[in-house]
Design a protein that fits this description.
about 230 residues; alpha/beta; Metallo-beta-lactamase, Chain A; six-stranded mixed sheet; about 25% strand; globular; MBL fold metallo-hydrolase; metal-binding; Mito_Persulfide_Diox; RibonucZ/Hydroxyglut_hydro
């Protein structure tokens, strides 16, 4: 089954549901709190059992529903080990494999740059890149221990090393696009294709982007899986 792609118009965030073929096990990637009921209804409608909730990083533009989804479904939260996300059942590292269903495997790639802990996930010819690689772009590198040098290496050494026909599913899109391929991004990505490291670092340093509106609320919340902290 192809990934189920869902969208949050407020933060332009994609959420993905992966379903094990021939089984009812499911995994959700980057769920958004305001759409928790929508996502639960998708699972119920399709007769799915949520096994894992995956985060690509500690988001700065929305609050995750990971904690509540795990409470409601019995799923396990699996998060990047370098993002300071407490309370998760699994702290992931580069090269880890998440198994679900009848022999399904999700391969974990540590792809820092947007944040120091950012992860991408590879499953059945698909890669879910979070904010590391976007369609014709990439995530910003100017906060949360971001690094243009690290992002350049993550994309070129890990993501662009995947087969060209790998479907690339980003964490966000702001231009009405949904999916790309690694081969297309390698040849055409406006920020990264055929660009030297020095040129890329200079480009990213000159973006001068505004601070995300929700960063002061979202990051602490997401480091607690979106759940209220005791005493808060």
């Amino acid at each position: 089954m192809n990934p189920i792609q869902l969208f949050d118009t407020e933060s332009s965030t994609f959420t993905y549901i992966l379903v094990a073929p021939g089984d009812n096990d499911a995994v959700i990637i980057d769920p958004v709190e305001r759409h928790r009921e929508r996502d639960l209804q998708h699972l119920q409608r399709l007769g799915l059992k949520l096994r894992y909730v995956l985060e690509t990083h500690a988001h700065a533009d929305h609050v995750t529903s990971a904690g509540r989804l795990c409470e409601l479904t019995g799923a396990v939260a699996a998060v990047p080990g370098g993002c300071g996300i407490a309370g998760a059942g699994m702290q992931l590292g580069d090269g880890d494999v998440i198994g679900f269903g009848k022999g399904e495997e999700i391969r974990v790639l540590h792809t820092p740059g947007h944040t120091a802990g950012s992860m991408s996930y590879v499953w059945r010819g698909n890669v879910f890149t979070g904010d590391t690689l976007l369609i014709d772009g990439c995530g910003r590198t100017d906060f949360q221990s971001g690094s243009a040098d690290a992002l350049y290496d993550s994309v070129n050494d890990k993501l662009f090393a995947l087969p060209d026909d790998t479907l690339m599913w980003p964490g966000h899109d702001y231009k009405g696009q949904a999916v790309s391929t690694i081969g297309w991004e390698k040849r055409n990505n406006a920020r990264l294709a055929n660009r030297s490291r020095a040129d890329f670092v200079q480009l990213m340093a000159g973006l001068n982007l505004p601070k995300p509106k929700l960063i002061d609320v979202a990051v602490p919340a997401n480091q607690n899986l979106g759940l209220p902290r005791h005493g808060a």
